[in-house]
Amino acid sequence: MIYKEIVDVFNDCQIILFLRKVSKITFFNGTDCVFIIQKIIKDNTVQLFNDRTLESEWILKEMTIGIDDNLSKKLATLSDTECPQKLKETKHTKLTFAARVQNDKLLAVPRSVIYSYLPTKSQKGFSFLINGDFLTNAERTELMQNIWNEFLFKEIAVKQLEWFTELQNTMFKYDVLKLLKGKYPSYSSSVIELGFNDSLDIAAKTISFLPVEQTEDLTTIVNSIRDTYNLSKCFNSSTILDYLNLPSTMSIIDLQMNDQSVLSELGSKDLTFLEVIFMVNSDKANNINSAIRFMVFFYNNTIKNNNPDWLPNLKTVSFIMDQHNIYKSPQEVFYPIAQYSDSLSFSQLSYIHPQILLHFKTAELHYKQWLSNLGVKEPDNVEVFRKAIVPLINQNKIDKNNILEITDFVFTTHKSKNFSEHDYENLRKLPVLTNNGLYKSSQTYFSDDYNPDKKLSKILVNANFLATDYVKSEDDKGEWKVFFKRIGVRDNISIDIIEEKIERVFFESQNEEAKSYFTWLESKEEYPGLYHSYRYSGQHHISHFTKIEFRSHLADLDFSKFFWSSMLDSWDTLKNKCSNTKYFYRGGSSPVSSFLNYYIVSFPSVPATDGICYRSVELFSPNFKAIVGDSFPVVDFPVATTKEQIDFFGFKTYLSVSECLAILDNLAAKSISGDTTKQIFAVYNYVIGHGITDKNAVLEWRKNAKVLAINNTIQPVEKLYITNINSDVTPVNSDRFLKLPLGRISDEIVALSEFLMIPLISESMLEFVSHGESEDQALKAAIESKLTYLAIIHSHNTSDEFVKVVERLRQILNAKNFFRADKLRLVYSNEEKEMIIDINIDVWNTRSKQFYYTGDWKKPVTLYSLSSGLCEMLELKNMEREFELIFQLDDQDILDWLVKNKFNTEQIEELGLFVDIHHDITEEGSIDENDIAEKFSEFSIDFVAQLQVEEIAHSISSPVVKELVDFSAINVRQYTQVENDQTRIEIGRWAEEYANKYFKENSEIFTSVKWMNENEESFLPYDFEITELGIEKLIEVKGTPSNDNLPVLLSQEEWKVLFATGKDYSIFRVLGAGTENHRMERTDDLKTIISEGRLIDFPIKLYLE
């Protein structure tokens, strides 16, 4: 093993390269000579032999380096392990460089190691060998990271360039860059490597070792120019520097210098393709000699597949001099032929300068093919278009003087069918003559003379319509229409989509408002903010851009209405066009809002009810028309809008407090009418429904505000009151009370009072005053005689237990004393003792034991007034009509009516109440048969439509809100369902018509009503889509001819919608459908109520599979 290791080490002849006193080593195995390694100095080179065979040849450079006192002091602080004593005391050290030579050329040494007289295992990336007093670890695998080795590496950085300077006087002058060690990576953590970098930066600025082209001079790295493309073969160096306006201190490196690419990272300048183009465009190159040299340069550098990336750029660069000594691009210049003559007044054609053609005479075929590849063609109509007309289009040089001649020439070429699709793309930028002057084809419509698919001249009065000046013959009119349609003239209104992916900077240069659109996207963070700073780095692109050529017309009211009507008619198409815009950046891509979305929120483009176009975000949604009126602009679309469309436009769907108050001020200044009253109520309902508040704004408003009083006059708001007592209490002709919308419950009225800061008069604040009262036992006895009948009806309606109802009614009745009075009043005075309310009433049920009334209770008129108060006292809800009926019939008639309508009269007999059902009634308290009013219509639980909805003359009362059911009080009994399908349909239809009538009568609350089954059965799990106080809701209507609170059956689909919609799903129950005794109840937010365990009778059944 030891033998093999020794042989492996000494077989490398380089081991003796830096041993000063050793020139030959012979290795014996016993007496046998195994091998001999030897170095011989010859002609300034060192030759290494192995067994007399030449292994390698080297040039060496030894340099002595002084040690200053500062470094010695630093070394003295190191331990002897880190730095031997002799180095601490020495005043100089040596470095030796060795470069390998082969065939009179320098040869880079791969994977060279550092020598400390003998080789170490440390590789530092040099292409030559270095020997010095390096400090290594014990294994000689790594250099120690200390100030001594750092010092040596700083010296190496400088000394290598000094050595290269010396080599400029040798045959190796053009090879030295093979040896140059560039910089270590900037992220290196090695102090010796970072020190080397710093020293090399200094040396690159100060040491001249690079040979200069066409001189004997040397230059530094930072003052050097790399002529990669050999431009200096066409121009002398001083001319190049002059053309590029470079300082005279800079020099072009000799073209013979090898491996120049290593200089780039050290500060050397590269002569680029773009700088050559800059030279062409400089005034100093404006002569035929320079033009020929540039042509030779570009030709030589692009033939035989050299620099293939140049060719696309050269096609658009002006580097070919024409006959007028003007540089033209290949797109603008022709290869001359004798047969073609130019007779176009609008353009002077350009041809390649004859001296250039003469220079390339010997290579004419190759040169002509090269020019053809760049786009230089012999002239014909198509090429004239491309090189003479397209530049005029791009430079906006087409005007009224040349438009007809140019377009006629183009039209003739079009008819020959030689244009490519790219040519037509250029023609889409050709302006066209219109009734309003010259405009882009995409901004122009066919006039009626061209027989377009849609004649728009009467619709778009101010739009641009194509002139007929082009057409010289009726026979050509059809082909002219084909041509103009091909280049973008419109025969209808649409939005164009640019689908291709386009770089942002270029896109901004080609499209107005693109920059502001992108800025808008960034303000909304529609793509990650991390990438915003790179937006002009060439990494960002846009695709599927919505292009609106006619956008300037959108501020015109008629055009805007027509356009949006067309777009909303094809809503899915518009939505699809606007949903595919994508923004690309280096980290990926993001879907973003379309340009149309940006435009409508940024520029006036949407019609409003006041006849002006606004930004969409300045307009209220159409649903707010009934509330806003003409106080604020509301979008004015000719068709209904959906929630999705409202969200798309960003219309306002919320009224602020200040806006509500402004609407009230506006209405107060108008004449009072039914419409203004409805609008005022709509504002109140909105305030109630949304719970908005701003006390400071209301306080300021109240100083001068006026609102509608109950007597339909406009009064100062500070003068008014609000009451949540029933409307009978409020004086109808008073100018002291705010006029309120119908159907508002007490809590809602309180909320409005708090919002407007108008004092509220509640029932508890009223003072009851009676005149001439006397106790009346007869009425009490009469009520007691009818209690059992009333109890039967009530227990039937509520499923309460009959006996308990009777007992409860008697307890209530026994606790009350009845008084008949000559006059009853309710009064209220304010703090200033001003009488605000003083009104006569017919009935008053005190909170204690007294019940007061006026009149003769035996008379129908008085009974009509009494029934409501007495039912309220007895807690007989919704039984006023039955109460009146019972009081006006004798016992037998009552029993007959109860039996006929299937009430359970057996309960009376079972409890033995028939025998003692009457109390004695005094003569003066008896009911005369003549006093009995006409009997009410008989009740029936079968569905027989006694009247149609349209026959209901009065307004339908607001439905009672139902939220809770006491299941413990419900008797379990079977309800017979309607078996006949047609009967069920008729009941449901009647109930929906009833609900629809209610919605229509209260349009200030229900601003939008869509009856899903109005024309035909929709089979949807709901019957109405409504907007109530600005909130969109789904309504399911359930109808029954019964007045019982029967259970409601829900289908599976209705159940799903109920839970999916949540608080915006309500059930309206129409009871007494088809009868005179009709009424309606509603239950809202069913999802919450059900989830809280209300409306469900537990335990419930679950079927688990």
UniProtKB/TrEMBL annotation:
User: Which Pfam family, an example, fits this chain?
Assistant: NOV_C
Output the InterPro entries linked to this UniProt entry: Auxin_embryo_med, NOV_C
Query: Which intervals hold domain Protein NO VEIN C-terminal?
Result: 992-1077
Q: What is this protein called?
A: Protein NO VEIN C-terminal domain-containing protein
Q: Which organism does this sequence originate in?
A: Chryseobacterium jejuense
